[in-house]
Amino acid sequence: YFIQSNLSCCKMAFNNANALKQLLSSAKAALENDDGKEFASLMSLSHPFSQRCWNLSHVSLDAPFDQILYEHFQCSDALLASDFLKAFNHQCNVIQIFARMFKTQKEDNWGLPMMNVIIKDLYSLALKADIVAVSNGEMIGSKIDACADMLMTVFRVCASDSRTSIEFTKRWGLLSIINLLFKCYFKTNKLHLCKPLILAIESNVANKDIKDKFSIADRVTYNYFVGMKHMFENEFKGAEKCLSFAFENCLKTSVSNKRKILICLIPVKITLGFMPTASVLKKYNLSEFEDIVEAVKRGDIGLFNQTMENHAQFFIKAGIYLILEKLKVITLRNLFKKIYHISGSFQIDVAKFQFALNWLGLETVDSDETECILANMINDGYIKGYLSEQHKKIVVSKVNAFPKLNTFL
Q1: Entry pTM
Q2: DSSP string, 163-228
Q3: Are the beta carbons of 300 and 327 closer than 8 angstroms?
Q4: Residue 349 pLDDT > 80, yes or no?
Q5: Angle at 51 between CA 49 and CA 57, to 5 degrees
Q6: What b-and-e string marks burial along 317-340, b requiring 16 or more CB atoms within 10 Å of the CB?
Q7: Residues 6+ apart with CB under 8 A from 400
């Protein structure tokens, strides 16, 4: 047994030595040829070289790449041992060393592929490390915040490279960093920190020449997060524009991603007066929205409330429950519009609206509350007209009494 064990250890050491020799040879060749993609693949935590324990004390490579690879090996060793906090800390060291090195490389951006790999690995490790940190009594999101701080160091390096020619500028790395920062800020509910990042792309004169030339994958992700931010801030036209771009340009084969985009896009579209078709809901398995769409169309506030209750867990998990709650006023608007058409008059008794609300399940709504609902809808632009409190009537405009939603929202 002991002989077999010693032979196994010798064989493992021999294999590791050969693997290390092969890795360093590949790394040196990549550095000599400025082959960023090859070196980036070696730095990935999903590379076969990262799936073994190294236990190295140093790495024989030119500085600072010796330090970068050493920290990378330490990170992969910790990851294999499921020590996510230690792995995250070593990956932070990788980012810091890389950022210092990258900043000194003027008129050159060969390190961008490497940057994209190490920042994505950093975010993945941050998610795992945060779970461990919380179990140790730290605040939720502490490692996500630390990840964002590391990402900002690389962001500053890329953003400040404004005078280099388009071909060699580091600004090509901005969008991939920004997308990961978006993920961090959405995770920790710090959406206000997204604004400077959006301005860096949309308003910075230096970046206008490359704004539409980033990879389509990065642009889809960017528009998805910007669209969600607009949605949460009730900027529905901006949300519709960004989310539509993300949906239309997302790969057709990425059904799960297109479904994820639609979950946000559908409430935005309904708010602006555009209903999804039954075929779209069926194709992307979004049956939860079927009765919402039907309720809004018919003005059936009872069905709307019941559907919200039935699928509350799904809507809350998707982060759109409060957005959908705002569709209640559109459902009421469509109900009142039907009453207006049925009455055939520009002067309608408030009692008719109250009766409809009571009949649809809102039995506790009285005349005063009905008047309050109508007054708010007039004030917000959903109905053009005024309330006559003396005669208990609503007098609607003879021209476009119920304006299209996308004209004022």
Answers
A1: 0.87
A2: SS-TTT-GGGGHHHHHHHHHHHHHHTT-GGGHHHHHHHHHT-GGGTTTTTTS-HHHHHHHHHHHHH
A3: no
A4: yes
A5: 70
A6: ebebbebbeebeebbbbbbbbebb
A7: 384
Distance, in Å, from the CA atom of 290 to the CA atom of 65, rounded to the nearest integer, reads 56
347, containing H or E segment: strand 347-349
Q: What pLDDT, on a 0 to 100 scale, did the predictor assign at position 54?
A: 58
Rounded to whole angstroms, the Cα distance separating 206 from 123 reads: 28
174 pLDDT exceeds 50?
yes
Of 137, 143, 245, 233, which is closest to residue 194 (Cα–Cα)? 233
pLDDT in tens, 227-246: 999 999 999 999 999 999 99
Tell me the C-alpha to C-alpha distance, in Å, between residue 167 and each of 1, 31, 107, 108, 361.
61, 20, 9, 9, 64
Residue type for position 380: D
**In Å, what is the CA distance from 265 to each residue of 176, 242, 272, 373, 382?**
23, 9, 11, 27, 21
Alpha helices in 33-173 (DSSP H): 36-42, 65-80, 84-104, 112-135, 142-159
- Give the tokens for residue 309: 């209750």
Q: How confident is the model at residue 3 (pLDDT cuts 50, 70, 90)?
A: very low
* Average pLDDT, rounded, for the chain: 88
Helix, strand, or coil (residue 348): strand
Structure tokens at 257: 């991603």
Tokens standing for residue 351: 């009692």
For 51-65, what is the mean pLDDT? 69
